[in-house]
């Protein structure tokens, strides 16, 4: 949904000029794709993730700065621009609004709430510590409120002290959840599936939506428009793993039969092609590191039977896949989840360099998911706050300060 579709018909309706004590005047306004693309790409490039003088992770949005939010039902991108000529974009921020499950089980509690999600906040190094980020966040939060959002949340690396201090300090957010981002590289050889048998099935979008709504519609941050997510062109399908005994098979008789009489242990997950939105590239690696990675790939290709843990070519633009909607039931559900994830990594050969999944800290499926610690983030940090002030619902409940549940739904449109 464009800014015009939600009633923002000119740049002036969400703009502000501020300047004091010698600080440059900054205008906060809606992103204009016809004039702002080069400027926003420059800011993104200046803020590549990494340590000064070391390796950094570059994200190429394929010429579309709005790409990371375009697939959400309501989205907005703002820019911060210097007011004095020559005008220059020095900051960007992106946001989305949607309805999601709260995961709250208290009697009379709201099952769903409208939330705003903040992502892609960037400020040029030349204009940091001038309040630009604070102004961008404030303007985006006001748009969230106009759109009816009750909460706002964001995700960051807990080691990013500047980001954590901005949101938990100056912006009033609470530390909300600490999910784990698990990443596994894609090799030339196939990963071994679990020894115990697991039957893998592909579900059509309609069956997948019904299964998700009936079994996981209460999971925290489950999107009300799950059908739109599953039907998106970037969604590569939904897959079911059923653990069976010995050589027994499993016959799919439709989603209604499955829901009425589910197997003892199973897991489900969907795949999202992040490569259709952005490409990543690791920059600043030494020649020795590049050579070692290339040697591992050459050996893996030449002798797949050795199952060499080769390092993909992360040093040129590469695509990644994201597994979302991971859930399951039964004592052997973690085994079924592992079977799914292994199949995703194998499926990605020749199409992506890595497969990632994000799971809640308390999720029982997490312990069996294969991943490389060097590529993963054990504790991502999500922060949330209630918009409009107040102490929460009539019963005093504030989602931003609630205890975490076992599972969480990570919307692939916000990766």
TrEMBL record:
Protein name: Predicted protein
Pfam families: Acetyltransf_1
Domain N-acetyltransferase: 26-206
Annotated source species: Hordeum vulgare subsp. vulgare
InterPro entries: Acyl_CoA_acyltransferase, GNAT_dom, Plant_NAT
Polar residues composition bias: residue spans: 1-15
Chain positions covered by the region annotation Disordered: 1-29
PANTHER family: ACYL-COA N-ACYLTRANSFERASES (NAT) SUPERFAMILY PROTEIN, N-ACETYLTRANSFERASE HLS1-RELATED
SUPFAM superfamilies, per the entry: Acyl-CoA N-acyltransferases (Nat)
GO function terms (MF aspect): acyltransferase activity, transferring groups other than amino-acyl groups
Superkingdom of origin: Eukaryota
Gene3D superfamilies registered for this protein in UniProt: 3.40.630.30
């Amino acid at each position: 949904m464009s800014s015009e579709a939600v009633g923002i018909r000119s740049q002036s309706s969400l703009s502000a000029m501020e300047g004091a004590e010698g600080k440059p005047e900054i205008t906060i306004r809606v992103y204009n794709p016809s004039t702002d693309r080069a400027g926003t790409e420059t800011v993104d490039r200046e803020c590549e993730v990494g340590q000064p003088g070391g390796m950094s992770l570059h994200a190429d949005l394929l010429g579309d700065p709005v790409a990371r939010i375009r697939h959400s039902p309501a989205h907005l991108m703002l820019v911060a621009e210097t007011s004095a000529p020559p005008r220059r974009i020095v900051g960007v921020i992106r946001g989305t609004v949607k309805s999601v499950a709260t995961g709250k089980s208290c009697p009379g509690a709201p099952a769903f709430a409208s939330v705003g999600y903040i992502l892609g906040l960037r400020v040029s190094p030349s204009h940091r510590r001038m309040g630009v980020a604070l102004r961008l966040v404030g303007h985006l939060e006001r748009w969230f409120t106009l759109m009816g959002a009750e909460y706002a949340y964001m995700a960051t690396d807990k080691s990013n002290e500047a980001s954590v201090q901005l949101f938990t300090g100056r912006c009033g957010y609470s530390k909300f959840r600490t999910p784990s981002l698990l990443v596994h590289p894609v090799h030339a050889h196939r990963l071994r599936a679990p020894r115990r048998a697991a039957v893998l099935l592909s579900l059509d979008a309609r069956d997948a939506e019904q299964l998700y709504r009936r079994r996981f519609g209460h999971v925290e941050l489950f999107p009300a428009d799950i059908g739109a997510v599953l039907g998106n062109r970037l969604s590569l399908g939904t897959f079911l793993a059923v653990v069976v005994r010995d050589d027994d098979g499993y016959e799919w008789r439709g989603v209604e039969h499955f829901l009425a009489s589910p197997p003892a242990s199973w897991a489900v997950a969907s795949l999202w092609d992040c490569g259709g939105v952005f490409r990543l590239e690791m920059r600043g690696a030494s020649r020795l590191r590049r050579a070692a990675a290339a040697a591992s790939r050459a050996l893996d290709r030449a002798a797949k039977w050795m199952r060499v843990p080769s390092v993909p070519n992360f040093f040129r633009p590469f695509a990644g896949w994201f597994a979302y909607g991971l859930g399951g039931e039964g004592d052997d559900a973690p085994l079924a989840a592992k079977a799914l994830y292994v199949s995703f990594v194998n499926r990605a050969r020749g199409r992506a360099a890595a497969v990632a999944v994000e799971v809640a800290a308390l999720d029982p499926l997490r312990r069996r998911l294969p991943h490389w610690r060097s590529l993963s983030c054990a504790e991502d940090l999500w922060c949330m706050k209630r918009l409009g002030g107040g102490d929460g619902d009539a019963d005093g409940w504030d989602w931003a300060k609630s205890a975490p549940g076992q599972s969480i739904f990570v919307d692939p449109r916000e990766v």
